[in-house]
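Dear V.,

Thank you for sending over the compound details. I've combined the ligand you provided, zinc ion, with the protein sequence from our construct and run the structure prediction for the complex. I'm sharing the raw inputs here so there's no ambiguity about protonation or stereochemistry in the SMILES, which I know was a concern on your side last time.
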Amino acid sequence: MDTVNKLINIFRKFPTVGSRTAGRFAYYLMKLPKEKTDELINAILELKNKIKLCEFCFNPYEPFDSAQGKIDDGICFICRNPARNKNLLCIIEKETDLISIENTKKFNGLYFILGGTVATMRKEDTGHLRVEELKKRILQNNFSEIIVALNPTPEGRTTSVLIEQVIKEISSAQGGPASGWKITHLARGIPVGGELEYADDETLKSALEGRK
Ligand SMILES: [Zn+2]
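Below is the predicted structure of the protein with zinc ion bound, written out as structure tokens.
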């Protein structure tokens, strides 16, 4: 049963999937007709071949089809949109948070996907986060406001504090605005320990509007 176990081990690494669900997935696939599994394999391959990460915000996007005369400039449809406010930056943990905030239609600026959180206040633990990229974006753009919109979980809070320290450090070391960048946070309303992706639109809307 090595073949089945191999698959179960792969599924177990999926977010929110435990061993039992991973097993169900594997046995479900075993019963599927071959054309259905081929469809799945092709969809995964297409995902890997067609989807790129935005060079500005790291949002996954599907580049324009160059065969239709459109050019891929390396940035996603949000960053490319001339109607967006380029002076407003919203820092979030992950892709699904971007979708949640976009769904509220209350944010018209740019995003930056940090790529996770840390559980400790040690800067050396931030290696897997896009801290250096974030510094570059902040230094190379003229943001009037930076919203730190990480989840109100213990890790999200710790990471927020670290990120704010980083922003303040580059502000004093590399000549940001004299008073530093204006940093804001989502207003309370999202339950403590909750996550943006599970907050309802109305709650997230008022958390955005009431940011300070
Ligand atoms: Zn982008």
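A first observation: Residues 54, 56-57, 59, 75-76, 78-79 surround zinc ion (CB under 6 Å).

Warm regards,
I. M.
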